[in-house]
Write a structure and sequence with these properties.
Length: about 250
C-alpha cells in the first residue's frame, strides 16, 4: 500500500533540510527522485547521498519562482523518466522583520518563493499527471498556515495561501485523478530555523514548551506523512492539510 516502486517523484528544495528527508523517504519506499534546487553543488551532494544509499536520484537546477526555468526542468524530467507521478512543493524561504519594515520587493519575493512557486510547478506538472489520470501533489505549509507571526507577515500570508491553493487544486483536479494535499511542519531543525534561532531570543525554549512532545522536529519526521500522501494508501484523501508538529497546533 505504501510501495512507491516505479514512481517518479519531484521534490523542490530537495537538496537539504525537510526536502532531502522527504526525498529519502520517498526513495526508500521505491520512488525515483528528481531534485530541484537553485544550487547545483547542493543538488549534486544530495543526489550523491541518495545514490550512496542505493537510491536513484537526479539533480535539476531551477528557480521555482521562474516559470521558464521550471518549464524547462519539468520538460527535462519528463524526457528523462517518461512520466511524473509525485510532486512535493517544498522549496521555501523566510526573512523575518516587522511588517512596516518590508519593502514591496521583499514582500513579492517571499510570496513568490513560498506560494507562487507551488502554483507554477503544479501547473507545469499538470499536463503529465492529467494525461496519466493519476498524480499526487504534496504542498509544504507551516504552522504559519494557521497562526500569525509579528515578524513573518509575507511568509504567513504565503503559507496561509498554500492551504487554499491546496484545497482549490484538489477540487479542480480530482476529475483528473490528481490528489493535492498539504503537510504543515511544526518547528523543525534545519538551516531555515538555525537563522530563526539566532534572530528570535528564547525560541528554543518556547518551541519545547509549546510542543507537547517536548522537542524540535527532525526533517525525517516529515518523511512518513509524505510517503502516505504520495502512495496508494491515500487514494481517497485530497484537499487536506496535515500538521506534523509533535502536537504544537493542538496546544493552546
Ligand atoms: P531549508 O532552508 O533547509 O531548505 C529550503 C530549500 O528550498 C533549499 O533546498 C533551497 O535550495 C530551496 N529553495 C528556496 N528557494 C528556492 C527557489 N526559488 N528555487 C528553488 N529552490 C529553492 O529549509 P527547510 O528544509 O526548513 O524548509 C523546507 C520547507 O519547509 C519550506 O517550504 C519551509 O517554509 C517549510 N517549513 C519549514 C519549517 C522548519 O521549522 N524548518 C517549519 C514549517 C515549514 P537552494 O538553496 O538550492 O535554492
Amino acid at each position: 500500500m505504501f510501495n512507491l516502486k516505479g514512481k517518479v517523484a519531484i521534490v523542490t528544495g530537495g537538496n537539504g533540510g525537510i526536502g532531502l528527508a522527504i526525498a529519502s523517504g520517498l526513495a526508500e519506499a521505491g520512488a525515483v527522485i528528481a531534485i530541484i534546487g537553485r544550487d547545483a553543488g547542493k543538488n549534486s551532494a544530495a543526489c550523491e547521498r541518495l545514490t550512496a544509499a542505493g537510491e536513484t536520484a537526479i539533480s535539476f537546477v531551477a528557480d521555482v519562482t521562474n516559470e521558464a526555468s521550471v518549464e524547462s526542468a519539468i520538460d527535462e524530467i519528463s524526457t528523462a523518466f517518461g512520466k511524473i507521478d509525485i510532486l512535493v512543493n517544498n522549496a521555501g524561504s523566510n526573512d523575518r522583520k516587522l511588517p512596516q519594515d518590508y519593502t514591496l520587493a521583499e514582500w513579492n519575493t517571499l510570496l513568490s518563493a513560498n506560494l507562487t512557486s507551488a502554483f507554477i510547478v503544479s501547473q507545469a506538472v499538470y499536463p503529465a499527471m492529467s494525461r496519466s489520470k493519476s498524480g499526487k501533489i504534496i504542498n509544504i505549509g507551516s504552522m504559519l498556515s494557521i497562526f500569525g507571526n509579528a515578524r513573518a507577515a509575507p511568509y504567513a500570508a504565503a503559507k496561509g495561501g498554500i492551504v487554499q491553493l491546496t484545497k482549490s487544486l484538489a477540487q479542480a483536479w480530482a476529475p483528473d485523478g490528481i490528489n493535492v494535499n498539504a503537510l504543515l511542519p511544526g518547528w523543525i531543525e534545519t538551516e531555515l530555523t538555525k537563522v530563526a534561532r539566532k534572530q528570535l531570543p528564547n525560541l528554543d525554549e518556547q518551541v519545547k514548551i509549546r510542543t507537547p512532545q517536548g522537542r524540535w522536529g527532525r526533517p525525517e519526521d516529515l518523511a512518513g506523512a509524505a510517503v502516505f500522501l504520495a502512495s496508494r494508501a491515500s487514494d481517497f484523501v485530497t484537499g487536506i492539510t496535515l500538521p506534523v508538529d509533535g502536537g504544537y497546533s493542538s496546544n493552546t
